[in-house]
Amino acid sequence: MSMRILVTGASGFVGGALLRRLADVPGVEALGVARRPLPLPHYVALDLSRPFELPFRPDVVVHAAARVTPWGSPAQFRQQNVDTTAQVIDFCRRAGHPRLLLVSSTAVFYREAHQYDLDEDSPIGPAFLNEYARSKAAAERLLASYEGPSCILRPRAVFGPGDTVLLPRLLAAARRGGVPLLVSPGGPPQMDLIHIDTLVEYLLRAARAPQLGPAYNLTSAQPVDLHALLQQLLAALQLPPPHRRVPTALALRVASVVEAGWRALRLRSEPPITRFGVAAFAYSKTFNPQRMLADLGPPRVSMEDGIERFIDEQRAQWAA
């Protein structure tokens, strides 16, 4: 079956990986768009937060463009996550109402507490951990106004080649002198993650599926003990093991003080510690994968294989 797919955010982690994958799929004509100019074929640089036109009429739009960082102003997140979604929806209306797949985030569910077995119907808001989560929830609400076929896809903790947000930050901290274990009542945090190759495969399956539900939480369907995973990575990469155990409540108080200082000084850089970052690595976040497995099938990459790939990639990067 021939298909035309538009990928927004094609210069980023998820969008870029999807565009590269689509280049190898027979019958698929893909176009990537993003703000950053890149010397790539089948790619257009444009500002998605403003009205735009393209000489390309897609059957499916995968909207992966977003500001993906735990820090930033409300205006930045509104422009890059909410305004862009509004403009993509308007483009889809003018382009014949293609299927619109919104790449959102499981962060819309997060609380500063352990959360287990979350599913697509778990409550969202009204409070959010940070502006990123708030803006993603706002983008999801916008999608409800779209008259064409649509679906929300919420990946959980994406890792793999190109990731700069999740595991590489832990390893960078370990290389600088050690990373502590955050300790919370209820035991070590249990986490769902998803390898980038699995996420890209799910996006392709969603583009091709005859029918879709309104939303899917996407994971590797294999929760891991974060403390055990961290120790495995550090040992495999010959980095110092964690020597300190820090109460989560203390880490959150420190993060609050640091964030307040950053705001008072109007610093543009990301603080070295944020409440969102502490919560992400201190509290369990696991998801019920049944709807994903029933409609989109099993993950392409198991957690075991994904972690082994990640270790091999890190070794190769450090040896280069």
Structural description of this entry:
It is built from 10 helices and 15 strands. The mean pLDDT is 94. The chain has helices at residues 13-22, 74-94, 131-143, 167-175, 196-208, 226-236, 248-265, 275-282, 290-296, 303-319, and strands at residues 3-8, 28-34, 43-45, 60-63, 99-103, 115-118, 150-155, 158-159, 181-183, 190-191, 194-195, 215-218, 224-225, 245-247, 285-287. It has a single domain (3-312), classed as NAD(P)-binding Rossmann-like Domain (Rossmann fold). It has 320 residues and is an alpha/beta fold. The protein has a 7-stranded parallel sheet with strand order 3-2-1-4-5-7-12, sandwiched between helices. The chain has a two-stranded parallel sheet with strand order 6-15. It starts with a strand and ends with a helix. The relative contact order is 0.14.
The oligomerization state is single chain
Fraction of residues in H or I helices: 25-40%
CATH architecture: 3-Layer(aba) Sandwich
**What fraction strand?**
15-25%
Radius of gyration: 20 Å
**Given the C-alpha coordinates, what overall shape results?**
globular
* Termini gap: 41 Å
Q: Spatial order of the strands in the main sheet?
A: 3-2-1-4-5-7-12
Largest sheet: 7 strands, parallel
Average of per-residue pLDDT values = 94
